[in-house]
Amino acid sequence: MRVLALLDGTLADPDAPLLRVDDLGLMRGDGIFETVLVVNGKPRELDPHLDRLARSAEMLDLPEPDRASFERALTLVLDNWSGGTEMALKLVYTRGVEGGDGTPTGFALGLPIGAKVLTQREAGLSAITLDRGIEPGLAERAPWLLLGAKTLSYAVNMAALREAERRGAEEVVFTTSDGSVLEGPTSTLVTVNGRTLTTPPATLGILPGTTQAALFRAAEREGWTVVVEPIAVVDLHSAAGVFLVSSVRKITRVHTLDGKPLADSSAIHAELADLYESEY
């Protein structure tokens, strides 16, 4: 099942044409998006997602998204959803048609969670490390690269996932050219050592994670130490647990990295999953 709502407050047929062929989101990937997890009709971290949508728009010099219009559209999706208890809610915002009057294109789309993601939540996954061609400080020196914005330009991320599949893995951990960890193509990386959770800093040019932030809040409340600092790739193999987290995948453990088994983090995964769910 899918539900599509437009920013003017109307529903649309998700199987009917919507975008013009000259929409810049289609032609050039010139747009932004957010994916919100909805559980039992309730969006998780909605305000942080809408805040991040606005930050991404600012980075791309897009008109500021009309928050009220997006909230109206997503409410329409929620009110008309009759699928499972979980849904991926996508908020999409493009620069509009090429040569047009500058009016952006925007919509909210409700989708079911894929079976592959649901399986990986429970069983974990294998990943490989791939160089993203980014070095420390690049985000500040070259803001036009839009590092840290959630844009529609995901061709590189999808190519990386295909490369992982060719190598017999399921996911990717992007790295800097000097061997520091960045993020996954669609996720934030978190490591566990003892009672400490660590994630790389956004200053490296990665997307600040809404799910990671929720997990860290819950962990701090229960006495964990949370740290935002660079992580070396070599340290992933000695960590007590390595996890990829995102709105849709929630907390997913990495059990194999670059063909080498990591420490069994099943018990840690269960604890972190409970911590995350305690936020809701």
Automatic annotation (TrEMBL):
Hydrolase in keyword set: no
Gene Ontology terms for molecular function: lyase activity
Organism: Umezawaea tangerina
An annotated GO cellular component: cytosol
Keyword Lyase: yes
Stored InterPro entries: Aminotrans_IV (IPR001544), Aminotransferase-like (IPR036038), BCAT-like_C (IPR043132), BCAT-like_N (IPR043131), Class-IV_PLP-Dep_Aminotrnsfr (IPR050571)
PANTHER family: AMINO-ACID AMINOTRANSFERASE (PTHR42743), AMINODEOXYCHORISMATE LYASE (PTHR42743:SF11)
Keyword terms: Lyase
Protein name in the entry: 4-amino-4-deoxychorismate lyase
Similarity field: Belongs to the class-IV pyridoxal-phosphate-dependent aminotransferase family.
GO biological process: carboxylic acid biosynthetic process
Pfam families referenced in this protein's UniProt entry, alphabetically: Aminotran_4 (PF01063)
Domain of life: Bacteria
